[in-house]
Write a structure and sequence with these properties.
The chain has 91 residues and is mainly α. The chain is built from 3 helices and no strands. It is elongated.
């Protein structure tokens, strides 16, 4: 794999880890996640990223990550908190 692809994967992985940290903070502050659905989606993204070998796959992972980020942001807003939006790579 070329260096650009590997750098993109690394940037995406960093964002996914931030999503996981934000998720854990929100759960500690009362966010409900029945059956850990959102947590499982975040873990699934890590697995998908590890297996990704095309730019199209990375693009799908980014879109899912943005969706999860939006869901977490909604809960932050309900709690009167705000976060800095993640910078997702453009593919």
């Amino acid at each position: 794999m070329d260096e650009k692809f590997l750098n993109l994967k690394e940037n995406i992985l960093n964002n996914i880890y931030i999503l996981k940290i934000n998720y854990n903070n929100l759960v500690e502050n009362g966010m409900m996640d029945p059956n850990s659905n959102l947590y499982n989606k975040i873990d699934y993204l890590i697995d998908e990223l590890d297996a990704a070998d095309t730019f199209e796959a990375l693009s799908e992972i980014i879109n899912t990550g943005k969706n999860i980020e939006s869901q977490l942001e909604s809960f932050f807003i309900l709690k009167g908190q705000s976060t800095i939006s993640l910078t997702w790579p453009i593919i």
